[in-house]
Design goal:
Structural class: alpha+beta
Number of helices: 4
Strand content: 15-25%
Helix content: 40-55%
Shape: globular
Number of strands: 4
Radius of gyration: 14 Å
Order of helices and strands: HEEEHHEH
Protein backbone atom coordinates (compact mmCIF):
# COMPACT_ATOMS: atom_id res chain seq x y z
CA UNK A 1 0.00 0.00 0.00
CA UNK A 2 1.21 3.47 -0.74
CA UNK A 3 1.89 5.81 2.15
CA UNK A 4 -1.14 8.00 1.38
CA UNK A 5 -3.44 4.98 1.31
CA UNK A 6 -2.10 3.77 4.67
CA UNK A 7 -2.71 7.18 6.21
CA UNK A 8 -6.26 7.30 4.88
CA UNK A 9 -6.94 3.77 6.11
CA UNK A 10 -5.60 4.65 9.58
CA UNK A 11 -7.83 7.73 9.61
CA UNK A 12 -10.90 5.62 8.79
CA UNK A 13 -9.99 3.19 11.58
CA UNK A 14 -9.64 6.01 14.14
CA UNK A 15 -12.88 7.65 13.01
CA UNK A 16 -14.77 4.34 13.19
CA UNK A 17 -13.40 3.42 16.65
CA UNK A 18 -14.21 6.88 18.04
CA UNK A 19 -17.83 6.52 16.93
CA UNK A 20 -18.01 2.98 18.33
CA UNK A 21 -16.72 4.02 21.76
CA UNK A 22 -19.34 6.75 22.04
CA UNK A 23 -22.14 4.33 21.13
CA UNK A 24 -20.92 1.12 22.75
CA UNK A 25 -22.60 1.36 26.20
CA UNK A 26 -19.83 -0.88 27.61
CA UNK A 27 -20.55 -3.68 25.16
CA UNK A 28 -17.64 -5.75 23.81
CA UNK A 29 -16.38 -5.02 20.31
CA UNK A 30 -16.41 -7.53 17.44
CA UNK A 31 -13.29 -6.53 15.53
CA UNK A 32 -12.55 -7.79 12.00
CA UNK A 33 -9.18 -7.99 10.26
CA UNK A 34 -9.07 -8.97 6.63
CA UNK A 35 -5.84 -9.92 4.86
CA UNK A 36 -5.31 -11.08 1.31
CA UNK A 37 -5.28 -14.75 2.34
CA UNK A 38 -7.31 -15.00 5.58
CA UNK A 39 -9.91 -13.32 7.76
CA UNK A 40 -9.82 -12.91 11.53
CA UNK A 41 -12.42 -11.85 14.12
CA UNK A 42 -12.12 -11.07 17.84
CA UNK A 43 -14.58 -10.12 20.55
CA UNK A 44 -12.70 -7.63 22.72
CA UNK A 45 -13.66 -6.11 26.07
CA UNK A 46 -12.14 -2.62 25.86
CA UNK A 47 -12.66 -1.93 29.57
CA UNK A 48 -10.30 -4.71 30.64
CA UNK A 49 -8.34 -5.03 27.39
CA UNK A 50 -9.04 -8.76 27.11
CA UNK A 51 -10.04 -10.86 24.13
CA UNK A 52 -13.15 -12.82 25.08
CA UNK A 53 -13.47 -14.91 21.91
CA UNK A 54 -11.66 -15.20 18.61
CA UNK A 55 -11.78 -17.12 15.35
CA UNK A 56 -9.97 -17.10 12.04
CA UNK A 57 -9.83 -18.97 8.79
CA UNK A 58 -6.60 -20.57 10.09
CA UNK A 59 -8.34 -22.39 12.97
CA UNK A 60 -7.92 -26.16 12.95
CA UNK A 61 -11.70 -26.63 12.92
CA UNK A 62 -12.08 -24.64 9.69
CA UNK A 63 -8.83 -25.00 7.80
CA UNK A 64 -9.49 -28.50 6.49
CA UNK A 65 -12.97 -27.68 5.25
CA UNK A 66 -12.11 -24.41 3.51
CA UNK A 67 -10.62 -24.21 0.05
CA UNK A 68 -9.12 -20.80 0.83
CA UNK A 69 -9.38 -18.34 3.67
CA UNK A 70 -9.90 -15.41 1.34
CA UNK A 71 -13.47 -15.83 0.13
CA UNK A 72 -17.02 -15.19 1.33
CA UNK A 73 -17.55 -18.81 2.39
CA UNK A 74 -14.56 -18.62 4.72
CA UNK A 75 -15.84 -15.35 6.16
CA UNK A 76 -19.24 -16.91 6.84
CA UNK A 77 -17.63 -19.86 8.61
CA UNK A 78 -15.48 -17.55 10.75
CA UNK A 79 -18.52 -15.40 11.62
CA UNK A 80 -20.47 -18.44 12.75
CA UNK A 81 -17.53 -19.78 14.78
CA UNK A 82 -16.80 -16.48 16.55
CA UNK A 83 -20.49 -16.13 17.45
CA UNK A 84 -20.54 -19.62 18.96
CA UNK A 85 -17.38 -18.91 20.96
CA UNK A 86 -18.77 -15.56 22.14
CA UNK A 87 -21.92 -17.28 23.38
CA UNK A 88 -19.75 -19.74 25.32
CA UNK A 89 -18.05 -16.72 26.90
CA UNK A 90 -21.53 -15.42 27.81
CA UNK A 91 -21.45 -12.49 25.38
CA UNK A 92 -24.78 -11.84 23.66
CA UNK A 93 -24.51 -8.30 22.33
CA UNK A 94 -21.53 -6.56 20.77
CA UNK A 95 -20.70 -3.54 18.63
CA UNK A 96 -19.35 -4.33 15.17
CA UNK A 97 -15.94 -2.86 14.40
CA UNK A 98 -15.28 -3.12 10.70
CA UNK A 99 -11.98 -1.25 11.08
CA UNK A 100 -11.23 0.76 7.98
CA UNK A 101 -12.88 -1.74 5.65
CA UNK A 102 -16.03 -1.09 3.68
CA UNK A 103 -19.07 -3.06 4.89
CA UNK A 104 -19.09 -5.21 1.76
CA UNK A 105 -18.02 -8.65 0.61
CA UNK A 106 -16.15 -10.70 3.21
CA UNK A 107 -16.70 -8.21 6.05
CA UNK A 108 -20.44 -8.16 5.40
CA UNK A 109 -20.57 -11.97 5.10
CA UNK A 110 -18.82 -12.37 8.46
CA UNK A 111 -21.21 -9.92 10.15
CA UNK A 112 -24.34 -11.53 8.73
CA UNK A 113 -23.17 -15.04 9.68
CA UNK A 114 -22.46 -13.88 13.24
CA UNK A 115 -25.96 -12.37 13.43
CA UNK A 116 -27.55 -15.58 12.15
CA UNK A 117 -25.61 -17.57 14.76
CA UNK A 118 -27.19 -15.47 17.52
CA UNK A 119 -24.84 -12.57 18.16
CA UNK A 120 -26.71 -9.25 18.41
CA UNK A 121 -25.41 -5.93 17.07
Amino acid sequence: MATRQKKLFARRVRRNRFKLKSRSDDRPRLSVFRSDRNIYAQVIDDNTGQTLASASSLDKELKGSLKTGANVEAAQAVGKLVAERAKKAEVGTVVFDRGGYIYHGRVKALAEAAREAGLEF
